[in-house]
């Protein structure tokens, strides 16, 4: 099976991994295909001569396809294009032959490798024993004005020297290992290495299995759900798949086994799968299902939202149901959650863009919304059902295996599938989704709200108090002075009632729900607690939403907060927790904390010149620019705050500058904020914490410090 597809001058190269290297086949005749349609095929025929005369059109033919899941077969014009780079330009030109909207184009915006495998007999390798080699260089090396890398890490071994020497060593290691996959710290190392060869006229360089490299896409900034992201430039070397650690979601969140599992399900070869988003991979799965049903993939898809009354709109425009957490520390807590709730609703209730509010003879009604859902099997349940079933089988295999390597592979596969299942619901409401529909999104939420309330009522009737609930999970404690039905029997009854398994997730000795910092009530996603029995990996505590789980929190504050949680577990009172905090702050005051543990990581949302206020991020961006380290919106900056009173670049020092000092006051504030999350369930706020710390005597502090390990 094929693990890599390259488009080169000689044709399309499909690479297969073998035990002694790789074999390649060359396809000189491949021509990518797009389709043209109109409400009346006569409009297409009237323009066919212009299509045939286009210099990048090789051949046309009339074929029968469906333009959507709710449409019947109709005649369309198949258009074979000269080469992969001509697909989008040809589509743009053809779309202007008639008035906007009169002509519709299909199968246009596919990624290169995915398209080839979709249109040929190529099957992407999903279980091959692919060999890998890791290669990385410090950001300062990749940002240097002079071409070349003077320091690199190859499979964990550091290589230093002049650029030519480092290049020679890297190429020797690559040729000796002959890997199928290059795992790069940043793909920017590719043009840097080739720049050295060009400058020193070293001749053809083979980082891949053929000389040269290609730049597939430039870097870009995007916004998704209000969050700015950065997509680095993408590069290609023939015969090897590149996984860019700075531009991969699935490899970062799972592992190679997880990526390969999705390769088999999506039909996207490994290199494209590695940089793809969750939605991109889900769409690839949907495309396969669509084509199996003779449905083509729309370019620039647009679906209007059907009319709704104000009452229906008010009922529909809601998310999942939440039960405000009872702020405080609760003993003997049990967590239950519905297994793959949203995808299970989609499969069990047959929710799909073409089944919701469709014209059909038999249907079921969505609670409160009144939408009809056709009983004829939808395409989306057929896409998701195998994922749900396979993940359950993989989870069972994880529990049964004693082989750590197999467990790691299985966990990667389970995690990869989980991300697809988690996102499939939201993607139905995404405006750019190829096959989404907002009414499907609304119907899924309506069923989910009904299901959670059903579970709440059953648990309360069985003698349990629901202390928190959010979308698909509930936390309960025994209600005082009342008998309780066993949770297993209650969960089984709820599962049978709603048709989705309510599973026992975990038992806790205690759980603390954190109050909102602004306003009243509990924060929906901030809590922590101690497992009744440590997890298989030895984890004793669960943290959600608090500083220890936030990516911008420095390592020292994270360690302090985890220590405070353990102290709360031991004493169940705030005062010992704050005594422990005082010890940590005293060490901070003495300068005993390594600045490396104080590095703050923040994502920037704009270029440095676009900021209007002198923030810490701006100071870090200015320092980075002064050192030639350009940072783009969506990328991270890492720094230590050294003087927070200043508003210049001297306010911070970059982590790469190895600062020796830090601003004690700034990190005091961060530590107290983290401590507030720990003791606020007991009624303490920051002002009270500061008052207690001010009253702590040096004598009591010294006595406490001598009694145990401090951060």
UniProtKB/TrEMBL annotation:
<feature type="domain" description="DNA-directed DNA polymerase family B multifunctional">
    <location>
        <begin position="287"/>
        <end position="672"/>
    </location>
</feature>
<dbReference type="GO" id="GO:0000166">
    <property type="term" value="F:nucleotide binding"/>
</dbReference>
<keyword id="KW-0548">Nucleotidyltransferase</keyword>
<dbReference type="InterPro" id="IPR023211">
    <property type="entry name" value="DNA_pol_palm_dom_sf"/>
</dbReference>
<dbReference type="GO" id="GO:0003677">
    <property type="term" value="F:DNA binding"/>
</dbReference>
<protein>
    <recommendedName>
        <fullName>DNA-directed DNA polymerase</fullName>
        <ecNumber>2.7.7.7</ecNumber>
    </recommendedName>
</protein>
<dbReference type="InterPro" id="IPR006134">
    <property type="entry name" value="DNA-dir_DNA_pol_B_multi_dom"/>
</dbReference>
<keyword id="KW-0238">DNA-binding</keyword>
<dbReference type="GO" id="GO:0006261">
    <property type="term" value="P:DNA-templated DNA replication"/>
</dbReference>
<dbReference type="Pfam" id="PF00136">
    <property type="entry name" value="DNA_pol_B"/>
</dbReference>
<dbReference type="InterPro" id="IPR043502">
    <property type="entry name" value="DNA/RNA_pol_sf"/>
</dbReference>
<dbReference type="InterPro" id="IPR042087">
    <property type="entry name" value="DNA_pol_B_thumb"/>
</dbReference>
<dbReference type="InterPro" id="IPR050240">
    <property type="entry name" value="DNA_pol_type-B"/>
</dbReference>
<keyword id="KW-0239">DNA-directed DNA polymerase</keyword>
<keyword id="KW-0808">Transferase</keyword>
<dbReference type="GO" id="GO:0003887">
    <property type="term" value="F:DNA-directed DNA polymerase activity"/>
</dbReference>
């Amino acid at each position: 099976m094929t693990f890599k597809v390259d488009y080169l001058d000689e044709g399309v190269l499909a690479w297969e991994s073998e035990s002694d290297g790789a074999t390649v086949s060359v396809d000189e005749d491949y021509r990518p295909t797009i389709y043209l349609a109109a409400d009346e095929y006569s409009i297409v025929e009237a323009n066919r001569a212009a299509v045939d005369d286009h210099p990048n059109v090789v051949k046309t033919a009339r074929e029968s396809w469906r333009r959507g899941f709710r449409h019947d077969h109709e005649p369309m014009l198949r258009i074979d294009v000269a080469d992969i780079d001509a697909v989008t330009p040809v589509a743009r030109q053809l779309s202007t032959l008639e008035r906007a909207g009169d002509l519709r184009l299909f199968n246009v915006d596919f990624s290169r490798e995915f398209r080839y495998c979709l249109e040929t007999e190529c099957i992407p390798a999903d279980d091959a024993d692919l060999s890998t080699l890791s290669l990385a260089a410090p950001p300062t090396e990749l940002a240097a004005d002079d071409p070349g890398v003077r320091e690199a890490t190859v499979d964990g071994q550091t290589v230093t020297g002049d650029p030519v020497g480092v290049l020679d060593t890297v190429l020797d290691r690559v040729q000796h290992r002959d890997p199928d996959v290059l795992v790069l710290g940043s793909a920017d190392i590719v043009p840097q290495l080739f720049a050295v060869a060009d400058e020193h006229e070293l001749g053809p360089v083979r980082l891949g299995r053929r000389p040269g490299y290609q730049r597939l896409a430039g870097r870009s900034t995007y916004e998704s759900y209000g969050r700015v992201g950065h997509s680095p430039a993408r590069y290609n070397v023939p015969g090897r798949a590149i996984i860019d650690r700075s531009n991969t979601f699935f490899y970062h969140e799972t592992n190679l086994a997880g990526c390969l599992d999705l390769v088999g399900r999506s039909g996207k070869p490994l290199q494209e799968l590695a940089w793809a988003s969750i939605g991109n991979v889900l769409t690839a799965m949907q495309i396969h299902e669509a084509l199996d049903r003779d449905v083509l993939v729309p370019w620039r898809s647009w679906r209007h939202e059907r009319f709704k009354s104000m009452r229906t709109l008010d009922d529909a425009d809601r998310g999942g149901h939440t039960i405000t957490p009872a702020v405080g520390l609760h003993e003997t807590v049990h967590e239950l959650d519905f297994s793959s709730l949203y995808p299970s609703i989609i499969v069990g209730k047959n929710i799909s863009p073409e089944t919701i509010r469709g014209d059909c003879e038999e249907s079921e009604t969505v609670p409160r919304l009144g939408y009809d859902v056709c009983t004829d099997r939808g395409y989306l349940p057929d896409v998701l059902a195998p994922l749900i079933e396979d993940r359950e089988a993989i989870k069972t295999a994880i529990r049964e295996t004693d082989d750590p390597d197999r467990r790691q592979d299985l966990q990667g596969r389970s995690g990869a599938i989980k991300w697809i299942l988690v996102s499939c619901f939201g993607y139905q409401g995404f405006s750019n989704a190829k096959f989404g529909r907002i009414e499907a999104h609304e119907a899924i939420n309506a069923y989910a709200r009904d299901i959670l309330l059903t579970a709440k009522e059953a648990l309360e009737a069985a003698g349990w108090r629901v202390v928190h609930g959010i979308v698909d999970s509930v936390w309960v404690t025994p209600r005082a002075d009342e008998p309780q039905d066993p949770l297993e029997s209650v969960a089984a009854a709820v599962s049978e009632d709603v048709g989705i398994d309510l599973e026992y997730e975990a038992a806790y000795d205690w759980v603390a729900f954190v109050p909102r910092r602004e306003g009243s009530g509990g924060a929906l996603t901030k809590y922590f607690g101690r497992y009744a029995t440590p997890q298989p990996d030895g984890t004793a505590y669960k943290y959600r939403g608090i500083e220890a789980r936030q990516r911008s929190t420095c390592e020292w504050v994270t360690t302090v907060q985890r220590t405070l949680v353990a102290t709360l577990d031991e004493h169940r009172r705030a005062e010992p927790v704050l005594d422990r905090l005082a010890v940590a702050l005293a060490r901070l005051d003495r300068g005993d904390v390594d600045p490396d543990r104080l590095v703050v990581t923040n994502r920037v949302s704009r270029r440095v010149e676009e900021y209007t206020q002198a923030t810490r991020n701006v100071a870090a961006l200015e320092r980075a620019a002064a050192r030639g380290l350009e940072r783009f919106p969506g990328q991270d900056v890492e720094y230590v705050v050294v003087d927070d009173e200043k508003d210049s670049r001297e306010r911070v020092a970059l982590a790469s500058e190895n600062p020796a000092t830090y601003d004690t006051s700034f990190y005091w504030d961060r530590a107290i904020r983290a401590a507030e999350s720990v003791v606020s369930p007991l009624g303490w706020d920051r002002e009270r914490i500061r008052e207690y710390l001010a009253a702590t005597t040096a004598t009591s502090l010294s006595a406490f410090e001598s009694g145990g390990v401090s951060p």
